[in-house]
Structure formats: C-alpha cells, structure tokens
Amino acid sequence: MCGIAGWIGPPADISHLQNMTGALQHRGPDGEGLTVLPLSGGTLAALGHRRLSIIDLSGGAQPMTSHDGRYTVVFNGEIYNYTELRNELLGRGAKFTTRSDTEVILEAWRVWEADCLHRFRGMFAFALHDNIDRTVVLARDQFGKKPLFFAKRETASGTMLVFASEIHALLAHPEVHAELDLDSLHQYLCWRYAPGPFTFFRDIRKLPPASYMTWKAGEITARHYWTAPEETAREPVSCPDPVAAFLDVFDEAVKLRLRADVPLGAFLSGGLDSSAIVATLAHLGAPEIRTFSIGFRDDPASELTAAAETARQIGTIHTPLELEPDDLTALLPKLSRHRAAPVAETADLPIYMMSMEAAKHVKVILSGEGSDEMFAGYPKHLVERYLGGLAGPGLLSVAGHALLAATSLPPFPNRRLRIAARAMSEGRFEDRMVLWFGAATPAEREQLWNGPDVFRELDARPFRPAPGSSPLRRILHFDQTSWLPDNLLERMDMMTMAASIEARTPFMDVKLAEFASTLPDRWRINGRVTKRIVREALGPRLPKAVLTRPKNGFRMPVTEWFCGPLREPARELLLGSDSISGNYLDRATIGHLLDEHANRRRNHDKTLWALFALETFLREFF
369: helix, coil or strand? Predict the structure, then answer.
C-alpha cells in the first residue's frame, strides 16, 4: 500500500514531483522514490512513489525497473495472488530479483500485457512505463478499491497528463487548479457523492474501475478490461452444495489477504461481516489476532459491548475506543482535505479514529466492506427483491404514497419506513436508487438549488445490468458499480491511508464476487433473511448472538446531534454570511430543514449532514 504521483508531458521541474509525493507522505511514510523517463518527441514520464512497506520490506522499493530495463512501474496496492502468478511466470522463463508483488506486475505485463490485469486478485492502481514502445499505462483494479485521479492540461509547451492517488497531490502540481465542478455539486445533493468519473474539481477525473489508459505518441486511449459480474448475462448455477462452494472461495480470499511481512488485525463492529472475517482468521489459525472497535459514550446503539463479547468468544486481543462527539466533528476539516470531497458518510470519522488506534499495533487491517453489496445485506435489497418489479404506477405506488404520508407524522417519523415508501412510489429504477441511500430527492434538490443551470447526465453503466436481471441483481449491480467505487471504497482507502495503515476487504475478492453472481436470488435473500449464504456458511464459526443482532455498523448519532450540540454550529456554518454553499443553495430552504429537524417534525439528518460536510469541504479547498 502506497501512494503514486506523476505526469506525462514536456520537461518540467522535478521539484513539482517532489511536492506531489510530499503531499502523499501519510500514504507512504517508509520511503520515497522518483524517476524521469523518456517518451517520444521530447515528452517525458515523471513517476513518483511513497512507500508503506508491507511485503518484501528490504527489496520492494519503487519506482521499480525490470531486470532488463524495459519496464518501470510505480504501484499502489497489493496483488494477493502474486505467489501463484510468480510461479506461473517462472515456468515461462521470467526472472525475479525480489520477493515483492510489484515485480510480478512487471513480469506479468511482459508476458500478457493488458491481459494480465484480469488475472490479478487484489487492489491496485499503477503507472507502467515501457522504454521500448515509449508508452505509459495507467491501470486500476476491478472494483476501484485503489483510487487514481488524473487531469489533462494544455500548457504552452504541449499536452500534459498529471495523475496521483489523491487529489490533494494533484493540486500540488502548478498546472492543476482547484476549480469547483458545479455539476458534481448539484449531483451530490441527491447522491451524497460525486458519481464517477467526475470529481468536485472541474478538470480532475477518476480513472474508472476495471480500466486502463495508455499514452502513446501524444495520443490517449482508455479501455475496460473486466465486466462487473451482474452486468454479464448468466443463468444461476445449479450447485449441489452452495455453502461448501462459498466457504472454499471465501476462506481462500481471507487466506490470501494474510500475506504480509508486518503485523495485521481486523476491525470488529460486532456485526455479521466483521465477525465473520475475525472468526475465519481464527479458523485458519492466524496467530495473535488483534481486533479494534469504536463507539460513543452514552450512545445506546453503541456496539462496543457486543464487539467485546464477540472478541472474547473468538479469542482476540481486543482494543475498544470510546469517543465523545466533539472528538470527531473537530476532525471534519482535516478529513475533507484527505478525501478532497465532503465527508458525507458519517462512518468516515470513526473509521479514521479506529485506524489511528490500530496503526499503533498493526500495519494491515481487514474490514467487512463489500459484503452487503455482494450478498444483499441492506433493507433496500429486501424491498427490491420482492417489490422492485412492482414499483411505480398502480397499487404499489398508491400504497407507497399512503405509507409516505403516514410516516411523516410526528413524533420524529420512522426514517427507514419513510425511505422505503418514498423509493417504492417511484417507477423509474434510476429515481429509486437516489432515494435509497441519497440525501435530498430530485424534487427537494430543485428547492435547494440556487445556482446556475447544470446539464450533465449520469453515467448510464451502473443502471444497465445484464438483460433480464432480477430486481435484486439490478440493485446489486448499481451498488457494485457506483455506490461502492465512488463512495464506500474511496472512503475506506482515504480514511485508513490517512492513518498510514492498509485496509484489505475479503468480501471484495474478485473470485468471490463472480461466485456470488452465479447464485440464485434465494441464496442472497430468503424470506426476510438477508445474506443467507453468508449466515449459513459462516454461522457455525460465529457466536449465536452475532447472527441475530440487528444491523448497525459504525454509526454516529447525528440525528440527535442536529437537535442538540450541532444545532447552532450547523446554523452558523450554513447560513452565515461567509457560507460558500450559500452561493449555490437557497438559505431559506436550508433554514427550514434545520428547524424541522430541531423541532423533531421530520428527520433530515442525512441531508443536514451532507450540507454540513459540503460547507466544511468547500471552505478547505475554495
């Protein structure tokens, strides 16, 4: 796990590259490397790297050049199956001088070129220079677990492509500027993130997951190399023992993620996903398992007690962290700088604090991210599974609107029921997706928006699963191609790397995702049971309480905060004369939302936090 930065273009001052890698020091405190390499027509490739040493501590320094000098790479991430690939490449005559997974990328590219990318089980973003073809390739893993941002600039000396693991590092280059993208701001009000490939910065883009970009003789081409499982039409596989098949792939996924030359541990919330990973670590015989959990003092929903009991029964060395609300809200500006986006997911803050604590003991952490999106763990999946094909006009729409009215009544309405009612009253799948996990509805956004006209359409791909997909597969495809890469995975990377610690997500294993997509819907949701196969397969390893405990996660009590300690700070931040978001949003509408929530007439916690985080972010960058 590391950070990479660089550019392709005319000769430029090497100090710019040093400034970019310096902005990534938290991602790689163990070392730094820089190189400048020739391309065609006087163009150069500048490659920079910050290293967090995980594998081959003495031999994995970067930039790394192949033994014959042809290829040079800077790489962020891990190739978990590098040992198997190395053995296969040795059989084809490859030569290795280190034990690192970085060198496996170099030799895999020599043998298979871009076809090597779909062979990698891991998380990666890299830049690879070919000294013979005079090309540079930028590539990103299948689900987008590792970020890679770029900006194309026209300078007096010619075209320049600047890239980095974080936007903060891109902005350290003098040719890249912080200009607000109003289309992304407008979309954020609904989605609570900037849908890819766009960012909050007008000229900065994300390299899409499962894609690679090639620079050759001044021409840039981009291609996808892998298709998300739910985008591929396939019949469910008739498997005689799906539970055993799941365990084979899942255990392998966890085992591969134990490969490290440094100590590792796991986050433990007390819920199903993190407990399943920790229990599997014990099942596989991992020595001295360290676990970490977090909660808020006096919060009745805190999972600290449940996590401690799970840790005791599995037998881990457990570290709980108990916080006050002020501990986290004070971090919002700093974490906004790391994300270069609003910290719209409140879980970002406890994940960062937990990562800081874990970094005192380990360098690698395992997390349960992705289980819900692969195996259907959210209430929205339950509703879409049974009602998704009926949503919209007709009886269900009438029922949805009636439920919507009923759940609007005081005292504080039931938010979960209200979200479901709102979503199921919409006939278009695209409109429902924004209602499930978003902030404002499209109609509410138009009441909020006071900026110039915006016209950008969303990328259609997350809304296009395989033809004939069931409602459940359709929403899982959206989660896997938008919600995960543009929000949750980006969050996990930025918050853990801000603490100089590597996060690994076994449930996001490519082979496991491909296996999940072969399952009939009933193995994901059966009756009211979500993530059925996860529960049946891993249940025997888990304390019984874990299987019946309500889903919670790393939540923050923001509903109460906007009625109490955040009530006045939010009003001052959002409605003050120096409010930046006030240049684009209607202040009277924001004031109404604050008042309705504070008086407990309607729960606007998601929208209010999204606005609070937005204003904090804008003040950091603009």
Answer: coil
What is this structure's pTM?
Answer: 0.95
* Both tokens assigned to 385: 């599974």
- pLDDT: which is higher, 414 or 332: 332
CA distance 597 to 375: 34
CA gap 35, 128 in Å, rounded: 12
Higher pLDDT, 327 or 571: 571
DSSP 325-358: HHHHHTTHHHHHHHHTS---STTHHHHHHHHHHH
Pairing verdict, β 211-216 and 135-140: antiparallel
Peptide bond before 63: cis, by omega within 30 degrees of 0?
Answer: yes
Rounded distance between C-alpha atoms, residue 232 and residue 340, angstroms: 33
Tokens in use for 613?
């985080």
| Residue 299 near residue 319, CB atoms below 8 Å | no
379 near 277, Cβ under 8 Å?
A: no
Max CA separation in the chain (angstroms): 72
- Going by pLDDT thresholds of 50, 70 and 90, the confidence category of residue 308 is very high
State whether the Cα torsion 153-155-161-163 is positive or negative. negative
Cα first-last separation, the chain:
30
Host H or E run for residue 420 = helix 415-424
Q: At what angle do helices 101-112 and 82-90 cross, to 10 degrees?
A: 50
How many Cα atoms sit within 13 Å of 422 on the Cβ side?
21
Residue 443: alpha-carbon gap to chain centroid = 27
Distance from the Cα of residue 289 to its chain's centroid: 25
Reference 117, options 30, 227, 278; nearest CA is 227
Under 8 Å between Cβ of 76 and 145? no
Backbone angles phi, psi at 511, to 5 degrees: -65, -35
**pLDDT score for 236:** 64
Give the whole-angstrom CA distance, residue 233 versus residue 468: 8
Catalytic residue among 2, 116, 190, 239: 2
Q: Are 314 and 279 in contact (CB under 8 A)?
A: yes
Residue carrying structure tokens 């763990």:
377
- Tokens describing residue 300: 């009745």
**pLDDT tens digits, one per residue of 68-84:** 999 999 999 999 999 99
Q: In the sheet that 149-155 helps form, which strands lie side by side, from edge to edge?
A: 31-38, 44-51, 2-9, 158-164, 149-155, 204-206
Give the integer Cα–Cα distance in Å for 506 and 517. Answer: 16
Concerning whether 2 is annotated as a catalytic residue, the answer is yes
CA atoms of 168 and 181, how far apart (whole Å): 16
Both tokens of 450, joined, read 């006071």
CA 535-538-541 angle, to 5 degrees, is 130
